[in-house]
Design a protein that fits this description.
With 392 residues, this protein is an alpha+beta fold. It contains three helices and 17 strands. The strands form three sheets. Strands 1, 3, 4, 6, 11, 12, 13 and 15 form an eight-stranded antiparallel sheet that branches. Strands 2-5-14-7-8-9-10 form a seven-stranded antiparallel sheet, with no helix packed on it. A two-stranded antiparallel sheet has the order 16-17. The longest helix is centred in the C-terminal third of the chain and has 63 residues.
Length: 392
């Protein structure tokens, strides 16, 4: 089992968080001298917390203090964002190096560079004879922040490259590191004829005089990683792979809404049995909602049927009322006829007129009453008005 993590400040020979300047915040005083590079936004979007290099003549000189003249165990850690991948006028670009002209007794002590022919490479330990660890067929991602670490372990002469916290390659060297008078530089190798000027940005540069463990390197990566570049560290981001600076999380399950497979129901495990991108918690909710919707539809149809029944009932009641009125009026008409029949012919009179019953019934009743009101031997006229009627 790997030993417990040491303090990441332990063995720190130089540290450049670039908080508005190029000062060394390790306490060792290896402050950088800036040549042309400009402050810019850093890994997490903080203003003036990184340096941008133009690929032409920009670099930062860190000096040649004994604390960074490494000849034993060491670790180099760099965050970089490359504007233009190596190629064309930028075939080789250096992130950090301590490198002089080949064959002049001032060859590389250490170097991390990217190249169009060698991918990610670095470290040569003796002049006139190059020892190099190279990750071939490696393309540095353009325009995003990425983390690279190079470690060396003197007892085993093992060199290791890490990218985004993961080991890329390990190699055992026959050579040993040596000291030289060349200054350490960021963004170029100005003492070498090749220069290797970087077109891009650097941030959070660390130089250790010890070999960091894999766990420590992973921690260094996680402390600053922001894959989606929303200004929130991956460890704190509730959706680290999709930009969501607002960190919206309406169900409070720790998973950002933009990543949550069930935004409405707490489901921190994100279980998805059917693999349909709808969390199991929401499957249950959606089934419940579908059942509710079906019941609501049934209720609406039932209410509509009830309403129609009420309308039918009202129409039936109206018809019954009309028929009852007609029946009552018909009864009155018959009573009037009976009264007239009981009255001598010459004394008959009536003001009753049928109005409420059906037209044919009213016509019959009125006609009978008209006949009964006629004097003996007189025929009824079709134009006899209905109204107050007296026999003559």
């Amino acid at each position: 089992m790997e030993k417990a993590l040491a303090d990441l400040n332990d063995g720190l020979a130089a540290y450049y968080p670039f908080n508005g300047n190029s000062n060394d915040e390790s306490g060792n005083g290896n402050n950088g001298i800036v040549y042309g590079a400009n402050l810019t936004d850093g890994i997490l979007g903080n203003v003036n917390s990184a340096y941008e290099f133009d690929g032409i003549d920009d670099y930062i000189d860190l000096g040649n203090d004994d604390s960074i003249n490494l000849n034993g165990d060491f670790t180099l850690s760099v965050w970089a964002k490359v504007d233009e991948p190596p190629g064309g006028v930028y075939p080789v670009q250096a992130f950090i190096g301590k490198m002089g002209p080949s064959g002049a007794g001032q060859d590389n002590q250490f170097l991390i560079e990217i190249s169009d022919s060698r991918g990610l490479s670095g470290m040569t330990f003796e002049y006139n004879s190059i020892g190099r660890i190279t990750v071939n067929d490696f393309t540095w991602p353009a325009n995003i922040w990425a983390h690279v670490v190079l470690t060396y372990e003197a007892t085993t002469t093992a060199a290791r490259f890490y990218f985004q916290g993961e080991l890329l390659k390990e190699e055992i060297f026959n050579n040993s590191p040596f000291t030289c008078d060349i200054p350490v530089a960021l963004g170029a190798t100005p003492s070498d004829s090749g220069k290797r000027y970087l077109m891009g940005c650097l941030d959070e540069v660390r130089i250790y005089n010890r070999t960091l463990s894999e766990s420590e390197i992973q921690e260094l990566y996680e402390n600053n990683a922001d894959i989606d570049e929303d200004g929130i560290n991956n460890k704190e981001d509730n959706c680290p792979e999709i930009s969501n600076p607002g960190q919206e999380d309406q169900d409070g399950d720790g998973i950002g809404d933009i990543c949550d497979n069930c935004q409405d129901v707490y489901n921190s495990d994100q279980a998805d049995t059917y693999g349909d991108e709808y969390g199991d918690a929401c499957e249950e909710l959606y089934e419940c909602q579908a059942e509710k919707a079906s019941l609501e539809t049934d209720l609406t149809e039932c209410q509509s049927d009830l309403s129609n029944c009420q309308i039918d009932l009202e129409e039936a009641n109206a018809t019954i009322a009309l028929q009852a009125a007609s029946l009552a009026e018909c009864s009155l008409g018959i009573e009037e006829i009976k009264r007239l029949l009981e009255t001598p012919v010459g004394q008959r009179s009536s003001e009753w007129i049928c109005q409420e019953s059906e037209e044919s019934l009213c016509a019959a009743l009125n006609a009978i009453i008209e006949i009964l009101l006629l004097p003996p031997g007189k025929a009824i006229s079709n134009n006899t008005p209905h109204g107050k009627r007296n026999s003559n």
